[in-house]
Write a structure and sequence with these properties.
Two copies of one chain form a homodimer. By secondary structure, chain A is an alpha/beta fold. Helices cover 36% and strands 26% of the residues of chain A. Chain A binds a DNA duplex (30 and 30 nucleotides) through α3.
Amino acid sequence: MKKKERQKIIIDEVSINRKVSSSFLSEKLDVSEDTIRRDIHELHGKGLLTKVHGGAISTIQKLYHYNEDLIYNRENKIRIAQKAISLIRDSMVIIMSGGTTNLMLAKLFPKDLKATIYTYSLPIAMQLTEHPLIETIFIGGKIHRNSMVTTGIDVIQYLSNIRADFCFMGVSGISIEQGITDEGYEVSLIKKAMINSSDHIVYLATSNKLNLRHRYDVCNLNEIDMVLTNLDSTDPALKDYLKAGLNLL
Amino acid sequence: MKKKERQKIIIDEVSINRKVSSSFLSEKLDVSEDTIRRDIHELHGKGLLTKVHGGAISTIQKLYHYNEDLIYNRENKIRIAQKAISLIRDSMVIIMSGGTTNLMLAKLFPKDLKATIYTYSLPIAMQLTEHPLIETIFIGGKIHRNSMVTTGIDVIQYLSNIRADFCFMGVSGISIEQGITDEGYEVSLIKKAMINSSDHIVYLATSNKLNLRHRYDVCNLNEIDMVLTNLDSTDPALKDYLKAGLNLL
DNA sequence: TAAAAATATGCAAATTTTTGCAGTATTTAG
DNA sequence: CTAAATACTGCAAAAATTTGCATATTTTTA
């Protein structure tokens, strides 16, 4: 019996019976207990079941899984996320815009972080369900298919009624002359609303987003409290931003 | 070079350059063009890039992927979803509650279906982003971690302002005496609100949900327009439901 | 506490998957 | 239309992964 088939049967058994022993599975599947043990170890690593002494118990099944390997510029995004995490304290209220840097941040939040997070991004909301102490509020609206965020007047209205400590903003582009800009008109209005509802604006940018300008203005440089990039804050590429008075980390 | 590593490099190249030729990749990675062709074929099958003549072009990256193999009772859910699809027409307004049967339905909607769909479920919303002609409206609120749906007064209020043709309701339990019931108080209120906002209530139930009762009432049998199960409507297990005057398919 | 059961580790053998090649079929460009 | 480039199929060899076993270690049970 091939490994994949076998592991599917293990998942089904655990789903039906809640707890299953390695010896039972070994007999049922006609393989050694060692093989079952390995399978259980692997499935546990994927979060599909929980390994216990002598067997396995079922886990709430998450059908959607996040493939981190696919993130472009992943190491840089991890670096940025780690800088962002150093700003966060328990009991904060945070707004997160979309994008993969924010998604990486959501993933890397400490598992014991206690916070309230507002977001309009489906992937980020899904990722936040893995954090037991985070209260996630999803801002509803019409789904924009490609970016998997909500749009529309509902989103802007909702944002205008909340007050957050921090807004972590990503995706768009930043330049000295224009500040933060975005490709879409509606998204730019939503981001403006996020900024208006937050005490501190932290812009997350991989270095390829620096000096990039889009069609719609979101805010000026002087409205941003801090920019977090994968570069060291002494990097020559950031010289002009420092000179413009921006806080870098 | 191992296959996984190689495929990651292919994805990165396509992301950077938008279009890449098989011969370029073959040289760069020092493998035969046949191997590249196979890789591209496999990555195309996973939706990670688009195969074109002589190479590949990039696809919008979806980082969250749906593992259909993990759905318990999958074949039964497909059967139910197919029955549900036979009820749907273009330009309908539909409310979908949570659960894996509804998720399967979302997946199996025709790719050319034109409809407006309201949902409070993160996985279902994500699945609906694969349907180019479906307008998905996500009902915001506080995320309930395990079931990945939104909860709270916001959801109920939002629902009270819309009017849908159909509500496809799943998960809970159904019995002759109590009708539809649910495990959670708040979810039961939300489901009541879904029912109040819909012209037709269609309950989706795998046979193991029949004669199952939970703590909180959602609605009586006589409020349900139709029940779709994996069983044939002449099945003995459904006799009492037919006698109670229920429509079955 | 001692004995039994479960787990972890290393390894060779077994199994499965991948690869390049040769030949054939299809598509593209001139 | 023809020639060149690309794609597909089948296959044997190579590579990668999996498996059961033996042994040592750890955990659980009585």
